[in-house]
Amino acid sequence: MKPLIVAATPFEISPSIPLLEELDIPCLITGVGMTATAYALGKALALAPTYAEVINVGIAGSFSRELPLGSVVSISQDTFYELGAEDGNNVLSIEELGLGKGTYFTSSRKAVDLPKYAAITVNRVHGNEASIALCQAKFPHVALESMEGAAVFYACAQEELPCIQVRAISNYVEQRDKSSWKIDLAITNLNNWLQKFIRENY
């Protein structure tokens, strides 16, 4: 069986398209955000034959300055950050409310030789000092944020399908400053990893 490569946008995966086409490995572009991702991936999994695993790739922001921009990492767990309730200055998770599960985990059957970090998935990326501080106080173990990752883990968990998520760091989580972003570097490094992983495993 072959894997399904999942990315939010075409530009995040475009350097690897020739290799994927050569090996006849399917690629799904979901659109940005957890809603678009859950719909597109859920539909793809319902209509297609079984995949060996889902490989979700994309760029992400890092809360940690210890991770250089352009770093490629594996996401060990991902949490729906906004799924819950506000309680004054505190945020209550869906688990704390007793209404379900908000954190999902990688489940790959293949070894991924990358540093592993926890992430959150958000509808709106952080760019305000107060909201960043609140997030870090609530989830001090979290290193990265994206807009799709937890939705991919969720969909694959429902289908009991192995899934890995790999992210390249394009920016730090801070007040928005596009001049400091390294999107091109992140995409280059991400696709170099993906192509190597595909060649070694498929």
Q: Helix and strand layout, with pairings?
A:
Blueprint lengths: L3 E4 L2 H4 L3 H6 L4 E3 L4 H14 L6 E9 L9 E9 L3 E4 L2 E4 L9 E3 L10 E6 L7 H10 L3 E5 L2 H11 L3 E10 L10 H19 L1
Helix pairs in contact: 3-5
Give structural notes.
Keywords: Hydrolase, Menaquinone biosynthesis. Belongs to the PNP/UDP phosphorylase family. Futalosine hydrolase subfamily. Catalyzes the hydrolysis of futalosine (FL) to dehypoxanthine futalosine (DHFL) and hypoxanthine, a step in the biosynthesis of menaquinone (MK, vitamin K2). By secondary structure, the protein is an alpha/beta fold. It has a single domain (about 5-200), classed as Rossmann fold. The chain has six helices and ten strands; from the N terminus they run E-H-H-E-H-E-E-E-E-E-E-H-E-H-E-H. The strands form two sheets. Strands 3-9-8-4-10 form a five-stranded mixed β-barrel. Strands 5-6 form a two-stranded antiparallel sheet. Strand 5 and strand 6 (about 90-95) form a beta hairpin. Helix 3 packs parallel to helix 5 (about 150-160). The longest helix has 19 residues, at about 185-200. The mean pLDDT is about 95.
